[in-house]
Amino acid sequence: MKIHVTTVRMLGVLLAVLWLAGCANPGPRSRYLEQIEPGSLPNLIAYRGVTNLEIRYPFHGRDAYAIASWSQQHDGTPDFDYRYAVLAFDKQPRATRRSLAKRGTRLVIRNAKQWQALVEEVFEGLMPNEPGHGVLVMVQNQEIALCRDKAGTRHVVKLEEKPADVTIDHAFGQSDFSRKAIELLEKSAKKLEPGQSQFLFVTDEETAFVLIDLRARLIVFLSYPIDPDTQPSDLPGWFPLRALNTLVIRGFVISAIKNPCTMISRGLWHIGSSGAAALEAVDSGVSGDAGPPPPLSTGPGMDLDEWEKQLDELVSSRRYKGQIEFLIDGERFFPALIKSVANAKSSVDMLVYIFGADEFAVTIADVLKQRSSAVRVRVLVDEMGSLFGGGAVPPQSAVPPGFKHPGDIKSYLTADSRVEVRASANPWLTTDHRKCVIIDGRQAYVGGMNIGWKYRYEWHDMMVRLTGPVVGRLEKDYAEAWEHAGLLGDFAYAWVCLFGRTHPRRNEITNAIDIRPLRTSTGHVEIYRAQLAAIRQAERYIYIENAYFSDNVILRELIQARQRGVDVRVVVPAKNDSGVMQTRNLLTANELLRHGVRVYAYPGMTHVKAAIYDGWACLGSANLEKMSLRVSQELDVAFSDPTAVNRLKQDLFETDFSRAREIKEPAPGSWMDSFVKAFADQL
Asked: How far from 354 is each of 245, 372, 384, 423, 431, CA to CA, in Å?
């Protein structure tokens, strides 16, 4: 059976390669290249370097050039990989062009029909045989459902257009698509072009390109630079008004009316926390003249049973039964999330700090809007986080042709849908930094990822999927947060706190472990107290990965742990998204290195917030800085089950130790460091 013509058109849209913002405006040369007939390939010549590519094409009787480059593959990459790159049409020095043409590999160019045939063959290989079932395939920022309805008819459609009677059984990410495409191309290349290992495909829409290197088992998706005409020009005009509304009107005036208790308590707590952080910065207790660290301990580590009993007394949060699954990076988390939303029976409750307004965030919003016709969908965002972190300006990453920035993502979610949206206000600039998605009251996703392009494709981060009675605890927390953000504010919040149920019915599971939710909120610093106590009790090893590390007490305790023989290792991003925190992390790393702590710089941006202390793990949304540990609303989960901890240790920490570059010597400082440190310590 042939795929319907509308599906073929949809495939064309699917294969339109992503457009990246921040690039030069496409000039007449790029517009000429876009007009090339996909099937004709008129005199195109392409050369490939190690991490760059050059396409030569005729332009007004002369040769013109489109160039692109991409990042190098990491060591230890699996037997497939994929990258994105943007074609540039700026004038390139002739010597550079000759150099690439001379040393590079000339590519075999295939037309759009051959590319589309390859894609359809990949989809055919992934299509399930059983009626009423389907799979999710994520390709080039598109979520495509491959399924058969109850009558057995095949469908290749966007996820939101999936037949209602179809259950999504599995989610294939971009890596799965790349692997399958490479395997199929290897077979056809042996027949059509023996000895060739690199191919450049012209795609069906906008004449974008896909490079496939069989030897390196790499796919590179190439796109044109963004056309600023596709973006609205009035965003800067309304942004100051929205910022004023968020910070002043909603943050103070409205909060004082509906959340008076919160307004007062958070203000006092924030002042006290800022003072405490300032005093700790002055008296950090860290010696500047460190001798050689002692040998590493070979003991068994702390007694975890006794440690859990101690935690029962130290924090108010208790243990709940549940199962935990680690979803590292957007490649694993977002397909799982979309599958869960697509299969939801009764409810989807989402709590995020940032719900962006880029193309990927809009894709998630569309899925939620579509499902709201069948199940209850509630989205709770942080007002300040979503404005400044995701909705203030046009997306700075990839967008497809014709994408329109939605402006206010909250309005977009509720338009023509039954999605309920509320925003947490920010009195005294406090935030709700939690990330938690609950499906049907039976499974929950918790961790560090917000909704947006960089969390899906660019940053290293993680979430966990929880099932079992522990979800009931999170469900009650969500109910409290939802009412707190509503019209009745503190009054509805107090009612839910007193009378809301803790456990959903019929949520017991087998093979469960003990999982302890930990939180930061006004008057509650469970995440901070628990991790400080764990550092002080650790005897064997401490592994920490965090993007923002500025807490002086934790810094001091880690140094003291190393001085008593504990193997202390810390992973921070090599390139932070915050310049201030980049410098603060550098100062933290310098101090740790001087005292024998091993520090690793993860390539790019790691947004992971996780730690293991002698077999007790703690992970979630909290950074190692003042706001997360003392002021903001935060959610972590902790556990000491040996199987789960060893899996986290292997899948996250050991993998990241091997990927990251270990820093051996402290970096030189500058006269500005003390000012940056003082500022960062209050963030």
From this structure: 17, 20, 9, 11, 11
Q: Could you state, in order of their start, the residue ranges of all structural domains in the chain?
A: 5-230, 242-283+330-459+469-508, 516-680
Closest CA to 324 of 173, 449, 170, 443: 443
pTM: 0.75
Q: Confidence class of residue 16 from pLDDT cuts 50, 70 and 90?
A: very low
What is the residue whose two structure tokens read 């979610």?
A: 413
- With contact defined as beta carbons under 8 Å apart, do 562 and 595 qualify? yes
pLDDT, position 19: 26
CATH topology of domain 516-680: Endonuclease; Chain A (3.30.870)
**Helical H runs in 442-488?**
453, 470-484
Report the C-alpha gap between 451 and 357 in whole angstroms: 9
Q: Give 357 or 245, the one with higher predicted confidence.
A: 357
What does the alpha-carbon distance between residue 677 and residue 673 come to, in Å, rounded to a whole number?
Answer: 6
Residue 428, number of CB atoms within 10 A of its CB: 16
Report how far apart, in Å, the C-alpha atoms of 572 and of each of 76, 453, 494, 549, 552 are: 20, 21, 39, 8, 16
Contact in structure between 553 and 534 (CB atoms under 8 Å): no
323, β-bridge pairs: 467
β pairing state of 108-110 and 209-213: unpaired
SS3 492: helix
Contacts of 49 (CB under 8 A, 6+ apart): 100, 103, 104
What pairing do the DSSP bridges indicate for beta strands 436-439 and 420-424? Answer: unpaired
Distance, CA of 19 to CA of 660 (rounded, Å): 29
Instruction: Give the containing element (helix H, strand E) for 287.
Output: none
SS3 461: coil
Distance of CA 533 to the CA centre of its chain: 29
Are the C-beta atoms of 69 and 104 separated by less than 8 Å?
no
Closest to 122 in 3D by CA, of 109, 134, 137, 112:
137
What superfamily does domain 242-283+330-459+469-508 belong to in CATH?
Endonuclease Chain A (3.30.870.10)
Structure tokens at 42: 């008129």
Band of the pLDDT at 400, cuts 50, 70, 90? low
> In Å, how far from its chain's centre is CA 408?
21
pLDDT digits (tens, 9 = 90+) for 246-256: 777 777 788 87
Mean pLDDT value across the chain:
80
Is-contact 682 277, C-beta < 8 A?
yes
> Where residue 470 falls among pLDDT bands split at 50, 70, 90?
very high
Q: What is the DSSP letter of 460?
A: B
Cα distance between residue 626 and residue 589, in whole Å: 18
pLDDT of residue 108: 84
3 state DSSP class of 238? helix
Greater model confidence, 474 or 668: 474
* CA distance linking residue 277 with residue 364, whole number of Å: 38
Average pLDDT for 388-393 = 60
Residues in the chain: 683
Q: What is the pLDDT of residue 287?
A: 54
E-assigned strand segments in 436-558: 436-439, 443-447, 462-467, 513-521, 524-525, 541-545
Rounded CA gap, 336 and 171, in Å? 7
Whether the per-residue pLDDT at 260 is higher than 90: the answer is: no
